[in-house]
Amino acid sequence: MKVGKVPEAVLKRSVLKQIRTNRPEVLLGASVGEDCAAVALEEDEMFVLSTDPITGTAKDIGHLAIQITLNDLASAGAEPIGVMLTFLLPEKISEAKLRAMMEQAEAAAHAANVQIMGGHTEVTRVVNQPVISVVGVGKAKKGRLISTAGARPGMDVIVTKWVGLEGTSIIAKEREEELLTRYPQTLVDAAKGFDAYLSVLPEARIAVESGVSAMHDVTEGGIFGALWEMAESAGVGLEVDLKKIPIRQETVEVCEFFDVNPYELISSGSMLMAAADGNGLVRALQAADIPAVCIGKVTEGNDRVLLSGEERRFLEPPKADELYKVV
Fold this sequence. Notes:
Elements: H1 8-15, E1 26-28, E2 36-40, E3 45-54, H2 61-75, E4 79-89, H3 95-111, E5 115-123, E6 131-141, E7 156-160, H4 165-174, H5 176-179, H6 185-192, H7 201-209, E8 214-217, H8 222-234, E9 237-241, H9 249-258, E10 271-275, H10 278-287, E11 292-299, E12 304-308, E13 311-314
Parallel strand pairs: 4-5, 9-12
Antiparallel strand pairs: 1-2, 2-3, 3-6, 4-6, 7-10, 7-11, 8-10, 9-11, 12-13
Helix pairs in contact: 2-3, 4-6, 4-9
């Protein structure tokens, strides 16, 4: 199999179908597009758990490890509490590098008022660059849990900020010298700085308060992958206007240079949502200085359609992220 997410057919056939043990206290479990699990706690609260490995880059890996996991929790409408970190490190790693990664992680955790509760650190021959696996722990009130599968026909589809933020930042940092052969330093620096937008916790809080029905943070596979996963999880169709999907010019330039599709590029920092009153949710987000736009509608059936002027084409199941073509 190719690097990246396994094909959806493989996921269903060889992973999800093998999960046969069910417990009554598990409220949200494994499914296409779901990034979290939820376990009942007290009468009015539940645990929300998430897990993620960070493998696409070694730069700023500590920061990314925390932020990506907190975004997963936020997409379920949960308040993040803590994380558990597993570091798998190559033999060539130095103690200074390990310390720097941990400092990055603590800084990101502190900014979100999240505690690093424990984990495991190991040097191993099975990796050639640092890998961090994260388990995130959050809490949510009963009745406030948001699922990727919550989209219903007639709802509006909303995207926050811009797609391609994480991938653009990673590529600009990893391949800066090549980009500078065509673009000015100001553009490359702006692209590198997109990591400042990676948190989706603020928009998630506003969306929950505004009655959002479904949320899915846009990660591997980009916006096309996230749209497919939301629709597949809910068993619905989509009609999306490609021209309305928000994207920064820096992302367009970086992706053009390396011949990658920005709509299939890892996009942490952007949240995909479905809501009965999309325009009202967009206004609430914009009032908090969070860019957001309605890009389409949830429809009956299984057709996931992209519109571009008079052209109509269908979304396909997610493929390997475009990031892996470059880094």
